What does this fold into?
Amino acid sequence: MKLIYAAAITIGFFATPALAQQFPKDFQGEWIAEGDEPSICKPGAFDRMESDAIMKVTARDTTQIESSCQLKGFKGQTFGANVRLSCSGEGNTWQVNDIWSVRKVAGRTLLITASAKDNRISVLAKCE
It folds into this structure.
């Protein structure tokens, strides 16, 4: 009986799809590009469409005014995380493989992203 139970658990384990990747809570929220008007960056600003410089990050995706991405991989590292996204917008699709890091600097929560594809570093401030 124990063998049958163990076999059923093993089969169930392999038959169940892997749990979907999620952004940790620190990465979730609304973020505005550094240098844009911070006074409009209050929670809910994305839904009110107050700026096209705001990005919304949920547990499994990111959304900007003209594009969205689904999280395909999140692997924590010493400095931040390797983030893989599958994106679409304005009739195009593309893949993203960036390094993301959330840091507190001078009392502000910042999301720093680095892309090797186009040697780009972006800094976004959390809407709080």
